[in-house]
Design brief:
Pfam families: Polysacc_synt
Helix content: over 70%
Shape: globular
Structural class: mainly alpha
Keywords: Cell membrane, Membrane, Transmembrane, Transmembrane helix
Main location: membrane
Membrane topology: Multi-pass membrane protein
Distance between the termini: 32 Å
Number of strands: 0
Protein name: Oligosaccharide flippase family protein
Order of helices and strands: HHHHHHHHHHHHHHH
């Protein structure tokens, strides 16, 4: 959790510095390029990392060294091949569409291409490390080294010591931070267990791994597309300045959602245990209490930014970002809705109802895309913020309804206090 807090704080400071120094247009171009690159990395790695961690842990526990070496080899092969394919596709698209992009933006895509390889290799290495039970080491590169090094590189560029902080160097700093993250992930990998595999003849189960990876990755793909769709569509439809307003507002809003992330991480094992023994009363109590804490934090953040958002935006970002506080407030409405339903997603997984998330995420993505198409042309970043908020409401509403129908558990605040006589149904 400490690393996630450090990463969130560093990322916020970094984006404030870039937004203020580059201005809305150039910062918007950088944010647009980064949104595309992170989307591609997410599509390549989301879900696959979870499967890799699971399979490594399983093979290691059963001492199946041949299978273990096989899946590690395949994981790195896929990371390199997928990155080359994605890089060639992005480079080709940037060159072909150069006339439709902002001046110089195609060059930003080309500068950022090495980031795909570094992030892909880093996430693969960390997934393997976590599979061997090294959870902290398996997050060090992504959640500590990369954001800290990125901030340090940007600060060095910003200081008047002979460097220049511009669009190209900002993207270059992102690439270098990815390299640093991968280097640290590689250095802290569990060398002992990996060296013990060198004598094993690798065995490959490509069809089984591919089939499992598709099933595991589906939710992750929908989720990452839904997250990155808004800044991409705001940039495509609204322009550079609008995506800059949306991106910096979303960075502030993430702090309000951090409590939900922390509670979900802390409570997931306990919720799974409560489901395993059929303790539905405890499950309902944990769900309600998590909502109550999240709601206080999220609603408090929304009220705070409603009162002081304009002052904070003007002080930290300058007058070029006039109106960003409105975008932030709309996004915080979505964050509050997310907090209101608490750990509903974790509860679905704990109760083995994760298939519901496919439908919920699909509806949320459709809502987000259609909302952006309808609202962004007229309202810009504010329209994108309303689309993202509607998407969150749709997603959480679908999951909440499915959870209640299947288990009788209401992932809402004050349920155990206002409805003391209600009892959830037996869990499936």
């Amino acid at each position: 959790m400490a690393m996630r807090l450090v990463a969130s704080g560093s990322t916020l400071v970094l984006n404030i510095l870039l937004a203020r120094q580059l201005g809305p247009d150039y910062y918007g171009q950088v944010a647009f390029v980064m949104a595309w690159l992170l989307l591609v990395v997410g599509l390549m790695r989301t879900g696959l990392n979870n499967q890799l961690t699971r399979e490594v842990a399983s093979y290691d526990e059963r001492n199946e060294r041949a299978n273990l070496r096989g899946i590690i080899i395949r994981a790195y092969q896929f990371a390199v091949i997928a990155t080359i394919g994605a890089g060639v596709s992005i480079a080709g698209a940037a060159i072909v569409l150069d006339s439709r992009l902002s001046p110089g933006q195609s060059r930003l895509f080309l500068i950022g291409l090495p980031l795909l390889l570094f992030l892909s290799l880093m996430s693969t290495t960390e997934a393997i490390t976590k599979g061997f039970g090294k959870t902290v080491s398996g997050q060090l590169g992504e959640f500590f080294v990369r954001p800290i090094s990125h901030l340090l590189f940007v600060v060095l560029l910003w200081l008047p010591i002979g460097f220049d902080l511009n669009r190209q160097s900002a993207v270059g700093a992102f690439v270098l931070s990815g390299l640093c993250g991968f280097a640290v992930a590689w250095m802290v990998r569990p060398r002992g267990p990996l060296q013990a595999l060198r004598q094993a003849e690798p065995q490959f189960h490509d069809r089984q791994w591919l089939r499992d990876s598709v099933a595991i990755s589906a939710v992750g793909w929908l989720s990452i597309v839904n997250v990155q769709a808004t800044p991409i569509l705001v940039g495509v439809i609204g322009g550079d300045a609008e995506v800059a307003h949306y991106q910096i507002a979303s960075q502030f809003a993430f702090l309000a959602s951090l409590m939900v992330v922390i509670l979900n991480t802390l409570q997931a094992p306990a919720m799974s245990r409560a489901h395993a023994i059929g303790d539905v009363v405890r499950l309902q109590r944990m769900a309600s209490h998590a909502c109550e804490i999240s709601v206080v934090f999220a609603f408090g953040s929304a009220i705070f930014f409603a009162l002081f958002g304009e002052l904070i935006a003007t002080t930290l970002l300058g007058k070029s970002y006039n109106g960003v506080e409105t975008v932030l407030f709309v996004i915080l409405i979505g964050t509050s809705i997310n907090a209101l339903t608490g750990s509903v997603g974790i509860l679905l997984i704990a109760c083995r109802l994760e298939n519901t998330m496919y439908l919920a995420l699909g509806l949320a993505l459709a809502t987000n895309i259609s909302g952006c198409i309808l609202l962004v042309p007229k309202y810009g970043a504010i329209g994108g913020a309303w689309s993202a908020t509607a998407s969150l409401a749709c997603w959480n509403g679908c999951m909440l309804l499915r959870l209640y129908r299947a288990t009788g558990v209401l992932s809402l605040p004050l349920v155990t206090r206002l409805l003391p006589s209600s009892r959830p149904q037996p869990l499936p």
